[in-house]
Amino acid sequence: MKRKLALTAAVLALLLNIGCQNQSNPSQSGGKSTELSQVSTEPVTLKLYVAQGFFAQEDFEANFVEPMKKKYPHITLEMVSGKLQDMITSGDVPDILIAGLPGVPALQDLQIIEDLNPYIKKFALDLSKYEPVTIESIKKFGEKGEMVALPFRMNIPALFYNKDIFERFGVAYPKEGMTWEETIDLARKLTRNDGGVQYLGLYAGGADRFAMGLTLPYVKKQTNEAVLTTDSWAKVLNLHKMMYDIPGYVVDGKLSSNSHTVFVKDQKVAMAGYWGTDVIGEIDKLVKSGQDLHWDMVTLPTFEKGKGYAWQAETHNMFVTATSKHKDQAFQVISHVAGEEVQKIINKSGRIPVLKKTEEMKKEFGADLEFLKGKNTNAFFTLQPGIHEHTKYDLKGRSLIVEAGNDMILKGIDVNTALRNAQEKLNQYIKEQAAAQ
């Protein structure tokens, strides 16, 4: 255990921040009411671990603490942070963990995740009420049919745009259903130095972000071999280079430091293709500080017209730890957060719920946020996310793809060489990790 802990500690700290078998109808299970009556209602405090920056204290209060006071007043929740590996070493493991999908392999390596299938059956939780992509993405981690987590909110990207910059340069706003090439062509018209201010047409993250629209694998899971030297990966890196070849994106031999936060705070980036939860969160902070942004959004661009995904599925998930002494109560907490009552709260707060999207839910999305009124929030619900099969080597793969993309731009390396270098480095990394276990 200590050996595994040492191997995964650094990876885990990063991943948590990013980042089955069919169920029979549990409501027909015999003895369910008897089982539920045996769940203790004695006062209990459950520790919930959230990696720093994953969500704000106010989200924890609104989505976890307050709903539990009404539903399960005997359950008190305490949010803890810090280094999870230190908690494991000390034996003080939280009852509930919050992590994104990229963080699951590292948690599995630590062997601290409880299989939720028995609790789903015991508490008659109907998984068919959730967006299928959220459940299928989690099931991908269950090699023997385990259900390792429940989702509580989705992160779906969109193309956000600054109306003032478009109007300043007399360029028409972006449209729904654009391709990346069309969007980059639009970015060329908006990337210019005006009055001593450098404006950039588009922020879309590194090459790894573009790849999410094709849900490309970094590693073949069955053989643990890198799969980066493909035509699809070449398409991704060439597209990434196309954007950064626009004059203004590389200054003094360095890539411009544009980001989704620059889009919101500095307001010098015309368009930002990024996760909705992150951008809306930044706009919310901006508005609360007394500032404003003249903006709207459309669907995230795709590689082909009328085809593609809203990147790969990314859900924020809740895990019950195998070491918890209060697993039943922990499951009651996470299933309530994933239930209709709390999901409505999440939806109205401008965060994307995991339940199937009804027309009523779409209309009520962001209802508690004044700055979302009149915005094209349907952009979040038009494209479906794709399902990506995560491995514990993806984080390294992503960093190598970003490096490969940057080498093409800054060092003039051709795409085939860049990908071959990345593939060799990733395979070497996989071998080193295997040897160290």
UniProtKB/TrEMBL annotation:
InterPro entries on file: Bact_solute-bd_prot1 (IPR050490), SBP (IPR006059)
Residues in the signal sequence: 1-22
Protein's UniProt keywords contain GTP-binding: no
Keywords: Signal
Superkingdom in the source lineage: Bacteria
Pfam families (alphabetical): SBP_bac_1
Coiled coil: none
Keyword check for Signal: yes
PANTHER family xref list: ARABINOSE-BINDING PROTEIN-RELATED, DIACETYLCHITOBIOSE BINDING PROTEIN DASA
Protein's name according to its UniProt entry: Extracellular solute-binding protein
Annotated source species: Paenibacillus solanacearum
